[in-house]
Amino acid sequence: MSKRVSKPMPPRILERMRDIYAEFAPSNECWEWPKSRNVQTGYGQMGYYEDGKHFSFAAHRVSLVLSKGQPDDFSLCAMHICDNKGCFNPDHLRWGSHKENMLDMHSKGRAQDYKDHARKQSGANHWSTRLKDRIPKGEANKKAKLTDKAVIDIRTSTETLAVLANRYGVTETAVSYVRRGKTWKHVSPAT
Ligand SMILES: [Zn+2]
Fold first, then answer.
1. Model pLDDT, residue 87
2. CA of residue 116 to ligand 1 center, whole Å
3. Which domains does the chain show, CATH number per domain?
4. What is the pLDDT of residue 68?
């Protein structure tokens, strides 16, 4: 497992978060972390290598640092106001002391969850499967900036990511995900 770090975040981690932000329109809803999660805690995570070692940050912590800045006190915890571990909407997060965080976890019965979580990470119990019906696909999802037609254009076009990103007002990362079928899986053809 990678090491938990309490040190300034490398700018490239914050840049990556900024790119991911661009795929979520401002809204009061929870933003479900679209990438990997820590199997033990259930929190979204972002990893990187430095001097050959792997480090990772909790995604919601990165989100809070990007939106509100890193407090001088590195022992502060990034806490969820919405109680949704997979959420990284900065409006749903706040800084709190370690003690506050523990009290919050216990009051919500989440301490036990941590132990159970690893067992729940497969098959029908995996969060993406459980939430599947609650997350509308593509155009039915209000946050989507692309349309089915745009997706087909992106996948069949030989133009560069930059050209397509500019045309549809999304990031190059978003275009690349569409092209590789990582997002918009329900629209074919994926290449
Ligand atoms: Zn939330």
1. 96
2. 22
3. 3-134 (3.90.75), 138-179 (no CATH)
4. 94
Q: How far apart are CA 187 and CA 168, in angstroms?
A: 17
Confidence band for 3, pLDDT divided at 50, 70 and 90: very low
Task: Calculate ∠ Cα 178-82-105, nearest 5°.
Answer: 120
**Res 13 pLDDT > 50:** yes
Its pTM stands at 0.55
- Cα 133 to Cα 130: distance, rounded to the nearest angstrom: 7
Estimate to the nearest angstrom the gap between the alpha carbon of 117 and the chain centroid: 18
Strand partners, 57: 46
Kindly state the percentage of the chain with pLDDT values over 90: 36
Dist. CA 74 → ligand 1 center (Å): 23
Cis (ω within 30 of 0) for the bond into 189? yes
Average pLDDT value for residue range 12-29: 91
- Alpha-helical regions (H) of the chain: 11-21, 59-68, 98-107, 110-117, 127-130, 148-156, 161-168, 172-179
Q: Give distance in angstroms: CA of 88 to centre of ligand 1.
A: 7
CA of 29 to the centre of ligand 1 (A): 6
